[in-house]
NECAP endocytosis associated 2 (Seriola lalandi dorsalis), 255 residues
Amino acid sequence: MAEDNTYESMLCVKPEVHVYRIPPRASNRGYRAADWKLDEPAWSGRMKITAKGKMAFIKLEDKNTGELFAQAPVEQYPGCVVEAVTDSSRYFVIRIEDGNGRHAFIGLGFADRGDSFDFNVALQDHFKWVKQEGELAKLEASQSAAPKLDLSFKEGQTIKISIGNIKKKDAGGAKARPMGGGLLPPPPGAKAGGVMPPPGGQQTVAAVQSNTASLLDFGSSVPAAQPSSDVWGDFTSAGSNSSKDAVKSGWVQFS
């Protein structure tokens, strides 16, 4: 974010603060609020913290008219412009300036600890942002100074991509499953679409051959008709009767 000197943002506003005259520092241990006349503040009014670019400004104004009483420009925090006392969290020592190069140190006190906490956090957050902006600017400067990596294709340059381990699907899709229904496959010796002959087929052929031979034997007597188990049935009995008549008459008939 570029610095804009014309834009001023508001960081914190407290409607009531107190200003104290402070004695010179007696030692390097820091200031103590107990040395001030806390029950006799030199001034009371409103405090604002504003920011313009990287700078922060602590402004003390009249709560009724808004007239500026004093101002403390802050370049960094913590620093020499704002210093906390050693014996309380509600009092600070700030260095104010009049714009002509003159400065003075005054005591600043808050009636509530929450107000002093907000004052402290507002300054910390602003200068934390200033630090991050500075680091980002340095990073951008270093990246712009470094040579850029050119990953574009040159004229006539090609690229080859090898994709492995890809299985082709069957053209016919999934294999058709055999129809169910509980039917067993045919035995190995059977023909497709045929019906196996019954086990008694050979006996039937033998019976037909024996009956045919009996018809060709003219001289022998043919037994009476057999039960329905004989495949020739009435044909055999008819042939037998005709043979007997032929013998009696002396003629041979061929049937």
